[in-house]
Amino acid sequence: MKLKRKTKVAKIQKQMQNNTPAFEEAKKFIESKNRFILASHARTDGDDGGSMLAMSFILQSLNKAAIPVAKGGVPLTLQFLPKQNEIFDDVPNEAIKEFYDGIILFGCNNKQRTGLDKVINSNLPVLNIDHHQDNARFGDINLVDETKSSVAELVFDFIKFLGVEITPDISKCLLTGIFTDTGSFMHSNTQASTLEAAGELMKYGARVDKIHEFTYQNKDIRGLKAWGKALENTRLAKNNEIAISVITEEDLREIGDLPSDTFGGFVETLNKIPGTRFAMFLRQDGNKIKGSIRSEENKKMDVSFLAKLLGGGGHKLAAGFELEGRLKRTADGGWKIEK
Ligand SMILES: [Mn+2]
Question: How many angstroms does the Cα of residue 332 sit away from the middle of ligand 1?
Answer without folding.
Answer: 38
